[in-house]
């Protein structure tokens, strides 16, 4: 959703790179580019004005003008201001002191309330260890009750639906009955799915207000389609005035709209975005972290979310066993069965394009990520499953005739089997080096990682020889040769491995570039 905005902001910052100091003209030109980028992204005009004013004021400060790297300082300011307009700190759900906690969902028809009810219930059940119950109070939309029952079954959550819907029944009475049901069966959370309309009207507001008064919710969440642009802000303001709400949920964040609603709604309404829904599956649901979203928009990745996803998907005990195999005997105990298990664990984290997109610097590989075929992983699994246990345990025994048999068994070509075996050996070598603390082959030298770059190799070579290399006769050159450690970054600069100095940009490993179809 934010690809276009990210591209425009990156272009604006590119013009600042290489400048020793910022002039008023530089600040004005950058602010103008940022303003155009935000307006094109459909961000509300008052939000844009406040944002640009704050950036210009801070960018004119002495700390930026005197800095050695103005581009990085301006990016830091823009990042902090983006976090502010996205809501500042992450907001948690308020839970009632005495259960049940009542959460009411409100919004227009088609915003995704019913699906979101199931996603929220599943998240509360699995992450917060609650016992939620869904309430079918949308009795107007055709088959809304049936849809909620299906969603509830998929989420493994009970649904209270005493009325068939389709225009039959009183939603306020259903909401009252639901409270009695929740207390008698001791459910800890009640999620009320309410009716919507195609547009804001008096009937919609009255019904929502009546349900609110009947159940006295601890949280009213306004569900908004992130793809409807400026209308999202208008609708949010109407609901805020008519019913009131405590937090916002953005649905359909996986769409290709310009995303301005997400950047505007918290600032305009004063209510924070609490959750984001970004797909059709019940697991496509995340807590909204303003700082992480700002980082993604600026192309700096979202490493924290990546780590959280990995913690959910990977078994700690199995990961420890795998690491032990990679550390011993140069990783030779690591087999294709282990490789397959690791690959399947990665797939549990979600689509690979989404995972790679969370890496810092992934924006420069956007085209390769978009064109990556997820079915390639299915083909790799088919090839490995077509091997015998002995072949998976020791791929060195896979000769020409075996490769032909494996290719026929997996419905692939011999070249595909050969390529997989070669890539496996390369990947094992790379993972073994990392597990042993030797750094990642092919990656630029990173401070604190012995042997990761040229500096580490030179230090090892000198240690083997037992005597230092003779210095140059030129005093300036001799001073530069005095240490084999990477030079510390100057004040105001990031280390080279993170985009500072002359090291410039983050680079993906060659193996990953090949996998994504790069050169």
Report mean pLDDT, rounded to a whole number. Answer: 76
Task: Supply the helix-strand structural class.
Answer: alpha/beta
Shape: globular
Poorly predicted parts: 440-471, 475-509
**What is the number of helical segments per DSSP (H or I, 4+ residues)?**
24
Q: Tell me about the largest β-sheet.
A: 8 strands, mixed
**In terms of quaternary structure, what is this?**
single chain
Radius of gyration, taken over Cα atoms and rounded to an integer in Å: 28 Å
Q: Tally the beta strands.
A: 8
Task: Give the percentage of residues in beta strands.
Answer: 5-15%
Residues in helix, %: 40-55%
Q: Trace the largest sheet across and list its strands.
A: 3-2-4-1-5-6-7-8
Straight-line distance between termini = 27 Å
List keywords for this structure.
519 residues, alpha/beta, eight-stranded mixed beta sheet, 24 helices, 52% helix, 8% strand, globular
